[in-house]
Fold this sequence. Notes:
Blueprint: H1 54-62, H2 78-89, H3 99-108, H4 123-142, H5 152-163, H6 177-192, H7 196-202, H8 239-245
Amino acid sequence: MADTSLPDHLPNLRADRQPPHPSWLPRQRRGTTPQMIGRYPDFDVLQTQDSWDEATQKVVLARLEPPGPLRFFSAAEEPTLRAFCDIVLAQDHEPRVPVAEFVDAKLADGQLDGYQYADMPDDRDTWRLTLKGLDESARDRYGRPSFAAAEVATQLALVDAFSRGWLQGGSWSQLNVSRAWSVCMRMTLSAFYSHPWAWNEIGFGGPAYPRGFMRLGGPSGPAAVREPFETRGATGEDPVELVRDEGL
C-alpha cells in the first residue's frame, strides 16, 4: 500500500501526472466495495441498516438489486456507454457499481435535474451525442472502430480531451463540449456515489435518518471524534489537508 504520509501518490507530483491505480488501496475485508478495495477495509455501511426507517431501507437496498437491461440507450450505444463509465470511474473489474444502468434508468424515466444549460440540448440528447462523438473521435483520431473497441490508453486520451473541451467536429459541433462533460460527469458521479458500495469505499455512514449524528467534530483533525458506526481508515492522513498543504 502507498505511504500516504508523503504526497508522492498525488497526481500532480507523479511523472505522468496521473493518479496511481487504486489497487494500492487495501483489500476490503468487510462488506463490498468497487473492485473490493478501499480506504476503510473494515467498514460496511449495511451493518447500520437497522437504524434506518423502513422507507430509507427500501430505497437504499433497492440499489443493490441486480440491474435489469438498458431501457434508454440502444444496443449500439451500450458498449460506449459502459466503456465511458468504466474509464472515468476507474472501474476496470468486478465488482462494479452499475453506473451505466443507473444513468440509463434516470434518462429512461425522465428523472432529470430540473434545469439545463441555455446553450445545450436536453440531457438525453447530450448523452446520445456524446457517445456518438466519442465513437467518431476514436475513429477519426486513432483509427479505432469505436471508443469501446479502443485500448485503455486511447480511451484515457479521449476522455482527457473531452474534459478539456478539445474535441471538435461531427457530433461535437452540436454541443458545448465543456458543458457536455459537466452534464455527463454530474450524472455519472451522482450514480456512483448513490450506491452503498461506494459509501463503503469512502467510509460514508449512509443515511442519518432517523439515527442522526451525535459527534460533530468530524472524522479527522484536532477535534476528531468518530460516530459509533465509523471505523478508522487504513491511513490516518486527511487527503484534503495533504492537497492543501502541498498547494495542489
